Automatic annotation (TrEMBL), chain A:
The lineage of its organism: Eukaryota, Metazoa, Ecdysozoa, Arthropoda, Hexapoda. This is Protein LST8. GO terms for biological process: positive regulation of phosphatidylinositol 3-kinase/protein kinase B signal transduction; regulation of actin cytoskeleton organization; regulation of cellular component size; TORC2 signaling. Belongs to the WD repeat LST8 family. Coiled coil: none annotated. It is found in: Cytoplasm. Gene3D superfamilies: YVTN repeat-like/Quinoprotein amine dehydrogenase. WD repeats lie at residues 1-32, 77-110, 212-244, 261-295. The keyword Glycoprotein does not apply. CDD domains: WD40 (cd00200).
Automatic annotation (TrEMBL), chain B:
The gene is Dgri\GH19748. InterPro entries: CRIM_dom (IPR031567), PH-like_dom_sf (IPR011993), Sin1/Avo1 (IPR008828), Sin1_N (IPR032679), Sin1_PH_dom (IPR031313). Residues 416-573 form the SIN1-type PH domain. Residues 492-512 have a biased composition (Polar residues). This is GH19748. It comes from the Eukaryota. One of its GO terms (molecular function) is phosphatidylinositol-4,5-bisphosphate binding. One of its GO terms (biological process) is dendrite morphogenesis. Residues 18-175 form the Sin1 N-terminal domain.
Length: 314, 601
């Protein structure tokens, strides 16, 4: 694999209107990029070729070049309304999806220049979360009115579920093996569904699997580990819980007292976890021992999003 | 205006101009003894015999002020009503004509009247030979820069019409490798290897997963490898100061300083390290940032110690260190206007500490003081040895613990003058903001001027000899109650030097009234004079009847600990009889308390 160590970086963004790029092993900040002065960073993702970093926030979506020394964005989206809550890339970088509080999830063709919108889905409520299925055509979405959607971008079929009334879905996740879909809400509950698909079927079949009362306060993120054996939920009660997907029992709990844990990311071997918290520090945890291995300090305010793309060796 | 014919005004003007344009932050220290206008005023006023009534009254006022207050920078025009004084403008210069310029020295009483205050004179480094450009010009330039930047940024309209993809294969469903239902997933990469190894890995992974379903699956992460290669020790020790790097923040005021790092070997030492630091950073944080940058830039050149070992010194741009004390660690770096500084090992003890203008007292640590301090330290050490005979008492353990806490640096820094803003708890209930100043010679409590409801109290100054002990009596998560014990001035003896302390009930800071003080402090070790006979130290029988009072302060835990450590360190070094007696009384009280307990049961 041609990935060099330089590309093994952690990107964080938060309320101080900056995006920072860190050398993961030393904790040194390599680069600071200016985000929009009126917005926090809601989500970060790197393009699959690792050259660009996309960030979204209030009324803005920006793409930054990671290779150059320039800290200004290379692509800027104009006339964005309200918060853009999530974004992500198709695995070849062909297209990008964005989810926003304008009720819409959009698909952006990134091959053509300039990028243009090739699909729109209307959730009829502000969209808090979106996540791409590993099959690269289905997108799971979660809205503020409690709806969970699965949408096939190819056929434009979709299915809607409401797991809990009067609860806002804060995040959705699909396991990398495509078996599970998780949706976490502001009541601290996490719902798990099993996904299955038979040949010729356009949209996965959704079967309820389990409900976990994960936290006593709002969950902010949920994410499956690369080996699909773990699920992490981060919360406003200062803890991140790691659940085993075998039986969805709690395996580990990491705590950063009195702070919100806004985001998390696993290493490729699912043994390490990065957390972004409201104390302005990103941390790297060893899950086996629950010890904090590295701290990344430099943000002057809460960190609300992080992005880490690990590599595996053959 | 007739001001230019008045020598006093001219001299004061020159002096004040110098002070207000000084950016070293220590000119007051240097110039304290050279207050020429005052000096002349004093000299000639005593010589003058024929003065009219107006002049006499002015002189009285002026000489009165000389003992009270350092002149502050004030603009004269506010006191124009004084200038109606009869005066001949073109009189030949005579020594006796060194007249006090009315209003240059103001009495403290006028401080109460806020209308007499003028704004502090402030110099901005940007104001040199150039005036500020107008706001419009700056705005236009900003717009221009933004435009040029935007030209390089590709723009996408978020709300554009949906254009379905032309190519059919734009959205492509990826077939997911369906793992065997009864076996755990194996990464796709393993599958590409030969069937022989594949079956081998599968069996091993199944086997291990039966032991622990979170065992290794042979996936090797680059991050894990990288961490294994760079142990935690390689992490920069000064990384906590990285956040003061001005280049890493957006929209915050910053400051650029060139710092010579004295610890570096010869060639590197001669070139300054250019740093950009947040303007709000304190000097200690600037030191930390310089250490951080140094270790990044010269990885193997030098092994740095902790930030406490270093200090920033004023320097010329040819990196010659000047013979001034280092910049105060607690001051924000924006206060100083230096372009070049030198980071060097902190010199043992600064000859000059700080001068408190508020109360007109100065705490200079002169050579004699140093000798006295050294003697006191030796005394204290001997004293500790003596006490060491009774190691089992809880107090000694506390002492031992305290002693361990006080490292060398604390000992050096303890006698330095320092002020803290706290809230004093008055009669258990009322709280008011005060400034507590602690130095090697005295503690001073001064109430803030802005307190609305209660009558202003005069500042209290207590010589350190009367202070017995300092402790934290109550500690919550963030707040703490700090108690300073001192000798009650109601008893005789040394208390005469405590005249500035308030007396009577009107000016009582918490507990200065003896009865009241003890009334609300059940733990106060008040004893009848008879109990002193049980003292094993016959020596102290003369001071055995000492009664103690205390001040309670409300503050955050960190400040409370700082003050406690500082004050107790000073007291330890001085080893005064008062402190010994206090601790002794308390010990006895505790013993009594313990002795009584079983009886009650």
């Amino acid at each position: 694999m041609e990935a060099t160590e330089d590309q093994l970086i952690l990107a964080t963004g938060g309320y101080d209107h900056t995006i920072k790029v860190w050398q993961t092993s030393t904790g040194n900040c390599i680069k600071t990029m200016r985000f929009v002065e009126t917005s926090q960073v809601n989500a970060l993702d790197r393009t699959p070729d690792k050259t660009r970093l996309a960030a979204c926030g209030y009324q803005c979506i920006r793409l930054y070049d990671l290779d150059s020394n320039c800290t200004a964005p290379v692509i800027n989206f104009d006339a964005v309304q309200k918060n853009v809550t999530r974004l992500g890339f198709q695995e070849d970088g062909k297209w990008m999806f964005t989810a926003g509080e304008d009720h819409r999830v959009r698909i952006w063709d990134m091959i053509s220049a300039p990028p243009h919108c090739s699909r729109v889905f209307d959730c009829q409520a502000p969209v808090n979360a979106a996540c791409l299925h590993p099959n690269q055509v289905e997108i799971a979405m979660g809205s503020q009115n409690g709806g969970v959607y699965l949408w096939d971008v190819k056929s434009e079929l979709h299915e809607q579920l409401v797991p809990e009334l009067e609860a806002s879905i804060q995040d959705v996740a699909i396991s990398p093996d495509g078996h599970y879909m998780a949706a976490a809400n502001n009541k601290g509950n996490c719902y798990i569904w099993e996904l299955s698909i038979s040949p010729g079927q356009m949209l996965s079949t959704i079967n309820p699997k389990k409900m976990i009362q994960a936290h006593n306060r709002s969950i902010l993120r949920c994410k499956f580990s690369p080996d699909s054996r773990l699920l992490v939920t981060t919360s406003g009660n200062g803890s991140a819980c790691i659940w085993k997907t075998g039986d969805f029992s709690k395996w580990r709990e990491l705590t950063i007292k009195n702070y919100w844990i806004w985001d998390a990311a696993f290493s490729a071997d699912s043994k390490l976890l990065f957390t972004a918290s409201s104390d302005g520090v990103a941390r790297l945890w060893k899950l086996e021992t629950k010890t904090c291995e590295r701290e990344y300090t430099g943000h002057s305010k809460a960190i609300t999003a992080l992005s880490f793309n690990d590599e595996t060796f053959d | 205006m007739a001001t230019y014919s008045n020598q006093h005004w001219l001299l004061s003007h020159i002096r004040n101009s110098f002070i207000s344009t000084d950016d070293t932050g220590i000119c007051e220290t240097v110039m304290l003894s050279d207050d020429m206008p005052k000096h002349y005023l004093r000299k000639f006023q005593t010589a003058t015999t024929t003065m009219d009534a107006y002049r006499r009254s002015q002189r009285l006022q002026a000489s009165h002020q000389q003992q009270r207050k350092h002149p502050e920078q004030r603009s004269a025009p506010l006191h124009q009503h004084h200038m109606m004084a009869p005066r001949i403008a073109d009189q030949p210069l005579q020594e006796v004509d060194f007249l006090c310029y009315p209003g240059l020295d103001l009495s403290d009483d006028e401080d109460m009247d806020m209308s007499t205050h003028s704004f502090d004179i402030q110099m901005y480094p940007e104001v040199g030979a150039h005036r500020f450009r107008s706001n419009t010009a700056q705005k236009l330039e900003k717009l221009d820069i933004a435009k040029r930047k935007a030209a390089r940024i590709k723009s996408v309209n978020y709300n554009e019409e949906v254009q379905p993809p032309d190519r059919k294969d734009f959205f492509q469903r990826k077939a997911l490798s369906e793992p065997p239902a009864d076996k755990p997933t194996i990464s796709t990469k393993t599958k590409t290897t030969t069937t022989l190894t594949k079956s081998a890995t599968t069996t091993t992974s199944t086997k291990s997963s039966s032991d622990d379903d979170l065992s290794d699956r042979g996936v090797r992460s680059m991050l894990t490898e990288q961490l294994a290669r760079s142990p935690k020790q390689t992490q920069n020790r000064f990384i906590e100061y990285a956040r003061f790097d001005g280049t890493a923040q957006v929209g915050m005021p910053t400051k650029r300083i060139n710092v010579y790092v004295n610890m570096l070997p010869e060639p590197e030492r001669n070139y300054p390290l250019k740093i950009c630091v947040l303007a709000t950073a304190k000097i200690i944080e600037v030191i930390g940032l310089v250490c951080y940058k140094t270790t990044l830039q010269y990885t193997d050149a030098v092994q740095l110690k902790s930030v406490q070992h270093y200090a920033l010194y004023m320097t010329e741009d040819n990196d010659d260190m000047e013979d001034f004390p280092p910049l105060d660690n607690r001051e924000p770096c924006s206060k100083f206007g230096f372009s070049h500084l030198t980071l060097a090992e902190r010199r043992p003890l600064a000859p000059v500490t700080r001068i408190d203008y508020q109360l007109g007292t100065k705490s200079m640590t002169s050579e004699e003081d140093k000798v006295a301090m050294a003697d006191a330290a030796v005394h204290a050490l001997q004293h500790i040895n003596l006490n060491g005979d009774v190691p089992d008492s809880p107090l000694d353990q506390v002492k031992e613990y305290e002693q361990r806490l006080l490292n060398h640096n604390d000992m050096l820094e303890a006698p330095m003058h320092r002020t803290y803003r706290l809230t004093i708890i008055d009669k258990r209930f009322f709280k008011s903001d005060v400034t507590l100043a602690v130095s090697g010679e005295r503690i001073e409590i001064d109430q803030h001027k802005n307190t609305k409801f209660w009558t202003n109290r005069k500042p209290v100054s207590t010589p350190i000899d009367l202070v017995a002990h300092c402790e934290i009596v109550e500690q919550r998560q963030l707040k703490a109650v700090l108690r300073i014990w001192l000798k009650s001035n109601s008893s005789s003896g040394i208390a005469t030097s405590c005249t500035s302390a308030p007396s009577g009930s009107t000016a009582t800071l918490s507990g200065s009234n003896v009865g009241g003080g003890f009334g609300h402090s059940p733990s106060s070790p008040r004893h009848s004079s008879g109990s002193s006979s049980s003292s094993p130290f016959g020596l102290f029988s003369s001071v055995a009847s000492i009664r103690f009072k205390h001040y309670d302060f409300d503050t955050d835990v960190h400040t409370a600990e700082q003050i406690r450590n500082k004050l107790n360190c000073i007291l330890e070094m001085r080893a005064s009889d008062i402190r010994r007696e206090f601790l002794h009384q308390r010990e006895r009280k505790q013993e009594k308390h313990l002795a009584k307990r079983p009886l009650k049961l």
